[in-house]
Amino acid sequence: MKLLGYWRSSAAYRVRIALNLKGLDAELESVHLVKNGGEQHLPEYAALNPQELVPTLIEGDNEFVLSQSLAIIEYLDEQYGGAMMLPTAPKARAEVRAMALSIACEVHPLNNLKVLQYLTNTLELDEDAKNAWYHHWIHQGFSAFEKQLEKHAGSYCYGDEVTLADLCLIPQVYNANRFKVDLSTYPNIRRIWDNCHQLEAFVLAAPERQADAS
Amino acid sequence: MKLLGYWRSSAAYRVRIALNLKGLDAELESVHLVKNGGEQHLPEYAALNPQELVPTLIEGDNEFVLSQSLAIIEYLDEQYGGAMMLPTAPKARAEVRAMALSIACEVHPLNNLKVLQYLTNTLELDEDAKNAWYHHWIHQGFSAFEKQLEKHAGSYCYGDEVTLADLCLIPQVYNANRFKVDLSTYPNIRRIWDNCHQLEAFVLAAPERQADAS
């Protein structure tokens, strides 16, 4: 099994945590998202992943090629078992998915590399306006997430087991810290960040621990 | 079962199709996204859905309240059975989820109401720049999706059964048509649009068929 990713990609980071929690061995291969205009746009990579995004999971000799981090994580759960990223009861599974999607569909898509590049290159926003954009969507998303946590959180986002919701939250918090977003009004988010970082699976998946970090 | 939505919301439209395909009866209740600054921001609604987005699924007397269209659709599959929106084999399920997420995480979040409002109100973009933004993300997403379809499509996005991928594609095409995006270079997308509209479940879920359409 091979995971094509990039140290700073939040989506690849989610999958790295899942692989660690499930104890699955995957070869991590770097696709540099910035160098030479972005290696994700090279024809060889685009043939594997037409969205030209990371991560991509590959099994065998390109026998099975899968994109989209949440699809990859649910696949790992369904195909490999082990520690599960979703609870078993339908209502609980649904609530965890909703929390995960509230990051993956509402926050991350607005703040990822391709969007920030459009803001700079096409809309010609200055750094202040770009930062304001970034902070706006983080605060909107995290305010709503914090309310979900008040209802569902235990040690982690949903009760006392790590779930897909934590796998989405932690990389987004990492990213928010990088952009110096003030998270003081989100006590549950900060607490869950601390709790997750007691676990080796999260620590080892962190961007700065990856071989391609620079 | 009650679905709080809005006729023009792509996310609510996805769930309406699923309810129809599964033959589930749900009371549709309108949350007007524009009138009075948006009814989704009213305290009563925000208490149910802290993201202040539609749709929200409600069972019983607010006993179970669920947000996020993809979480809702997977919940309906897991809880109610009937026509299934995902295949049964893990690899096929994963590929369908990846296709659905490539719309739900890469296209729709960039073109929904809250983002278009930010472009107008905060970035003060004119209509041309806003349209260019809209078209850019549709073309980027649909180009990649068309390549996925070359690999996976039959009568529908993934083989000859309707799946979650179709439920995400059709509302996005509806939206693209509304913004006059030229779809002539996406023959598979147009073909699947036509095929889906042979099915009553899609026809009856269309925005202009809803009671709150104006």
Automatic annotation (TrEMBL), chains A, B:
EC number: 5.2.1.2
Swiss-Prot/TrEMBL GO biological process terms: glutathione metabolic process; L-phenylalanine catabolic process
Family annotation (CDD domains): GST_C_Zeta (cd03191), GST_N_Zeta (cd03042)
GO cellular component: a single term: cytoplasm
Residue stretches making up the GST N-terminal domain: 1-84
Sorted UniProt keywords: Isomerase
Record bears the keyword Isomerase: yes
Enzyme class: isomerase
Every GST C-terminal domain range: 89-214
Coiled coil, from the record: none
GO molecular function: glutathione transferase activity; maleylacetoacetate isomerase activity
Family: Belongs to the GST superfamily. Zeta family.
NCBIfam families xrefs: maiA
Name recorded for this polypeptide: Maleylacetoacetate isomerase
Source organism per UniProt: Shewanella loihica (strain ATCC BAA-1088 / PV-4)
